[in-house]
């Protein structure tokens, strides 16, 4: 049997992409000793069409990916949130970890549409917020929260060394790479006055359902445990205070049932961790956890670029913002 391969290419040359047309080829297949005496060979013509007319854009740069996803972050992913839920979570999880309003100014980094800033203002704090998303900042301004600005939070932190009584960051740190997370802890430590606190909410890697938060947002880069938070705080010169879980908030009949059911279910998860680890107390199994760390030493004279051999590099205030940005920017290999 003979097979004649006739490759047919459709469309213009530009539509065919990078695959060149194959040469015409004829191959004879048959039993040994095939000859004209054995009769005419059967021929089958196979036609292949390869249309390549779809254009694909690939983003290989982390900053370009972030710009694209954060430009319309609220409308494409996060939504505007629920004001009543934010107030409840603020009262339950964040306010108990903050210093009193009389302690001084508070900066909410990665503030989104400014709902936490509004809670702080209503509670008597001298509060402001900053976010990189123009859409989120526009939502905050439309809601009358003028204390929210667009920009890089690292610039603001480095511009205010030793001035802030507290820095809050809810759902921000998971959007950063590991070098950026450590650089953020360093910048926060610089901006805090002695006794100032860093309060943040992050995805909990210990939770059996933590992946729902970690991978629920394509801009997320990492997640945390209580131990890793302790490690980061110590590296930045902050004293770890405590961490709390973020269970379902009861703000209605249905959510109250969820909150009640969570108590025995979470107890089973904690029991399993106690059996495996031998540690009976201190387990947090909610999808998120909120932690607080405190500054207990004098502020440095500039933003640290990192640590080598246990020594911190100190720079002048005029170079602070640029140095933190360079120190936290991922390398090409890391991307």
Question: Count of DSSP helices?
Answer: 11
- The coarse silhouette is globular
Q: Tell me which CATH architecture of the largest domain applies here.
A: 3-Layer(aba) Sandwich
* Percentage of residues in helical conformation: 25-40%
The biggest beta sheet reads:
7 strands, mixed
Plain-language structure description:
β4 (106-109), α4 and β5 form a beta-alpha-beta unit. This protein has a seven-stranded mixed sheet with strand order 6-5-4-7-8-10-9, sandwiched between helices. α7 (178-191) packs antiparallel against α11. By secondary structure, the chain is α/β, with parallel strands linked by helices. The relative contact order is 0.12. The protein has helices spanning 62-70, 73-78, 83-94, 115-122, 134-142, 153-158, 178-191, 211-214, 226-235, 253-277, 320-328, and strands at 2-5, 25-28, 43-46, 106-109, 127-131, 148-150, 164-170, 192-203, 238-245, 288-295, 307-308, 311-312. 33% of the residues lie in helices and 19% in strands. It has two domains: 1-33 and 40-56, no CATH class; 62-270 and 283-304 and 312-328, Rossmann fold (3-Layer(aba) Sandwich). The protein has eleven helices and twelve strands.
């Amino acid at each position: 049997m003979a097979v004649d391969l006739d490759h047919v290419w459709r469309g213009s040359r530009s539509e065919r992409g990078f695959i060149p047309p194959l040469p015409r080829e004829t191959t004879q297949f048959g039993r040994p000793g095939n000859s004209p005496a054995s009769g005419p060979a059967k021929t089958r013509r196979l036609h292949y069409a390869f249309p390549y007319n779809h254009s694909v854009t690939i983003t290989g740069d982390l900053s370009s990916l972030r710009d694209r996803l954060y430009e319309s972050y609220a409308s494409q992913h996060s939504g505007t949130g629920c004001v009543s839920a934010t107030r409840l979570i603020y009262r339950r999880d964040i306010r108990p970890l903050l210093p009193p309003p009389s302690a001084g100014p508070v900066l909410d980094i990665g503030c989104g549409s400014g709902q936490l800033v509004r809670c702080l203002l209503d509670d008597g704090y001298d509060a402001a917020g900053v976010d990189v998303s123009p859409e989120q900042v526009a939502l905050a301004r439309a809601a009358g929260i003028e204390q929210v600005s667009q920009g890089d939070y690292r610039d603001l932190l480095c511009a205010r060394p030793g001035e802030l009584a507290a820095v809050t960051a809810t759902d921000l740190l998971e959007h950063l790479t590991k070098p950026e997370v450590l650089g953020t802890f360093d910048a926060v430590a610089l901006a805090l006055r002695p006794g100032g606190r860093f309060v943040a909410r992050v995805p909990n890697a210990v939770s059996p359902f933590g992946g729902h938060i970690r991978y629920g947002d394509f801009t997320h880069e990492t997640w945390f445990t209580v131990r890793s938070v302790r490690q980061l705080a110590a590296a930045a010169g902050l004293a770890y205070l405590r961490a709390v879980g973020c269970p379902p908030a009861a703000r209605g009949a249905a959510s109250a049932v969820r909150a009640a059911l969570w108590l025995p279910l979470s107890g089973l998860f904690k029991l399993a961790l106690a059996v495996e680890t031998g540690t009976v107390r201190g387990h947090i199994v909610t999808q998120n956890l909120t932690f607080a760390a405190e500054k207990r030493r004098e502020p440095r004279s500039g933003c640290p670029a990192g640590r080598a051999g246990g020594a911190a590099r100190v720079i002048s205030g005029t170079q602070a913002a640029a140095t933190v940005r360079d120190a936290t920017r991922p390398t090409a290999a890391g991307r």
